[in-house]
Structures are given as structure tokens and as C-alpha cells.
Amino acid sequence: MSQSDPHFHTDVPKDPALRIKAIETVLTEKGLIDPSAIEEVIQAYETKIGPRNGARVVARAWVDPSFKERLLADASKAIAELGYSGLQGEHMIAVENTPTVHNVFVCTLCSCYPWPVLGLPPKWYKSAPYRSRIVIEPRAVLAELGLEIPLETEVRVWDSNAELRYFVLPSRPAGTEGWSEEQLAAIVTRDSMIGTAKVTLLETTQKGA
Amino acid sequence: MNGIHDIGGMQGFGRIEQEVDEPVFHEEWERRTFGTMVLFLATGMARIPELRYSVERLHAQCYLETPYFRTWIHSIEEALNSRGFTQIEDLLPHSAPVGSAKSPVEHGPPLPRNFVITALTTGVPSRVESQVTPRFAPGDKVTAKNIHPAGHTRLPRYVRGKKGEIVRLHGSFAVDDRTAHHLSSDPEQVYSVRFSARELWGPSAPEKDALYIDLWESHLDAR
């Protein structure tokens, strides 16, 4: 409990809708923000900035080896080639899943996440169970989420606690030879780019799509 | 601080519950909180480490029970209150009329709408140029410091005192551990450091598995 907010867990001023409105009013009245921009910011993350962006990056990397090379060398720069950039993606690192290495990322201390390619994180990513467990028992967590990693494959967990933001380049599934970039992007899920799922042809409408 | 937020490696929180077709926001107030937070950050009044530290200081039970975006509201309120703005409490309908609000800090005109929208796509890069020679190079053996500062730190408990190896250099960044407390700091090199799962979790961990984490130079000792 912070000293300066003794009412925080009493039950009277709990209504968050009133509180955020009050903050908006203060910032507006003091001339610090233009409230007409708030809705535009929100809608950008509801409609434009989300995991479909990341899926297009992955699909491009699957069909274009030179793009993949650039992506793994300087992810922010390569992602910007597709028009994606911005807050919480200024310093990106792409990590590649291979038959010998499986990557998964987390932010154990808070909720850091690569916004320009994946949008805002789902609740479970920010939850105590995921943040606490993925570092100590990644294989058990992945298995619980439906992903068995063979023991001969190295599991790398990335804790993004500084200014770097991670995202996983998943393996391209067999049976997609000759597919177009658009077809490939359509099967790449959000969770496959966090590292808690693989890209498969079985359930294209699976959770986390 | 060894707070509840420093949760990596703890046990007992149960299963991970995934929501199918989860919306970006669940409630209207969450939407407004997100949008207002982005605009608030764009004013430059407060930086993210300070806001994180506000959330970390919540009572542990409160931290675990409070909806995520509600903690964002708390952090903005603390930032505004600490700068002498009207207490948000005073603006709520149940409150008595506003009394003597302290003078706010000086500031310029509101940021133009287009500036904010542009910032969404340009971002706010935090890597800075530094002439300081990095102390470590890839392959160097290091130990994460065994420290337990009372304030904000991005060195989590589960790597403290553990032996790792430098994998890559990320460049120089301001030190969050200091900026959260409004302390000036020279930028420091940030390193990707690899710890084997066995070093962190003991002999029952799979031999090949590893944890990679980004640590500032002052978090590390040579070994």
C-alpha cells in the first residue's frame, strides 16, 4: 500500500471509470493533453496495431531469406520495412525457432510486450501464473498450453525486463510449400509469436489467432 | 524491492487461464485508461520506471487482486499527486468541494493531436550514444549481483548471485533503477545474459535449457 494513496483498497472510490475520467479532466483543464486524441489512440490498438502485423512479418521471413536475415540482424529496422514501428517496439529482437531451439518470452517484473507487431498483451501474459512459472518450469507451462517440447530441443526463455522487446519467429509448418505470403500470414497465431504455441495447419481458428 | 511484482520463479499461482477470442479491452474504462496513459506519457511529465515503481509499491494482496488497468490509474494518480496536482480524490462525486489545490508544475501548451498520433508509430527510442567502453564482451563470465535494494530495480531476485555468460551487447540505456527515483544517471551498457536452467533452478532442470535476460552493467560482476 503506498503512503500517498491510503484509500486505494477501501471500497468507496473504487470506480475506475470515474477515476480515469477525473484524470482526463485534470490533464485537459491544465492544458496538458488534447482529449480528442484519446479515442484515436485507443482505436489504433483496437484496429491497426495487433498480431496480424506480426503474422505478416513472419510470413515475409518465411518466403524471403534475405528479409529473414535482416529481421534476425536488426528486427526493428526489418519490421519497419513492412510499415510497423512505434511505442514498445523501438528496440526489437527477433528470435528464431528451429528444430533444436524453442524460444518463448515473458516479462516477469511487469508486462513488457512488443506492441507494434503483437498489439497489447492478452490477460494471461500479464498474469501471475504465467510470469511466475514460465521461467522456472517452461516445459510444464508449454505442455499445459498444449505444446510438448522434446527434451533434445533447447528451451530458451527470454525475460524482457529492460528496453528490448522480443518476438518469436516460429517454424514454418510442413505442407505449406508454394503458399503465398497472404496464405501463410493467415495461419500465424499470436501465441506462436510469443512462443507458447506452434504454427499448425490443423486449427486455423485456434485460440490466440 | 523484493516486492510481489518480482514474481519470476514463484510457485503456487495455479494454471494459466487463456481466454478464447479475447478482446483488446474488456471494459470501456480500460480503453479510456489506455488512451489517457499514452497521452500522459507523451507529455513527458513522468517516465515509465516511475509508474512501474508506483505499482510495485502496492500492498502485495492489493497487487494480486487489482485489475491490470486499474493499477495504471493508480500510477498516474501518484505521479500527478506527487507533482502537486489536484488530488484525484477531490474530483470524485462523493468528495467535498475542491479546497486548495497546490500549483502544478510548469509546462508548455498541450501536445498537438498529430504529435501524439505520430508518436504511436515513431516510438520513443531509449538507446543513447555513449563513449564509455563496455566492461564486458560476448563470452565473458559474469555473476549477477546479490543485492536487495529497497527501491526500484530491474534485477529480479531469481538471477541474483547466479553465474551467467554475456551473449550480446544491446547498447547504452538510462538506468531504470535510478530514473524511477528521479536520480540522474549516466547511461549504461545493457547486456543479454544467459543463465543455464540448472544454474537457476538446480540439477533437476533440463541440461540444455536456458534463461536469457537483459541486465545493466551495474547489475553484473566479473568472475
Give structural notes:
The complex is a heterodimer of chains A (209) and B (223). Chain A is mainly alpha-helical and 209 residues long. In chain A, 43% of the residues lie in helices and 11% in strands. Chain A has helices at 16-29, 38-48, 51-63, 65-73, 75-81, 115-118, 123-126, 128-136, 138-144, 181-187, 190-194, and strands at 92-96, 101-106, 154-159, 165-169. Chain A has a two-stranded parallel sheet with strand order 1-4. In chain A, α3 (51-63) packs across α4 (65-73). The longest helix of chain A is centred in the N-terminal third of the chain and has 14 residues, at 16-29. The radius of gyration of chain A is 20 Å and the shape is globular. The model of chain A is unreliable at 1-13 and 204-209 (pLDDT under 50). In chain B, strands 1, 2, 3, 4, 5 and 6 form a six-stranded antiparallel β-sheet that branches. Chain B has seven helices and six strands, in the order αααααβββαβαββ. Chains A and B meet through α1, α2, α7, α8 and α9 of A and α1, α2, α4, α5 and β3 of B.
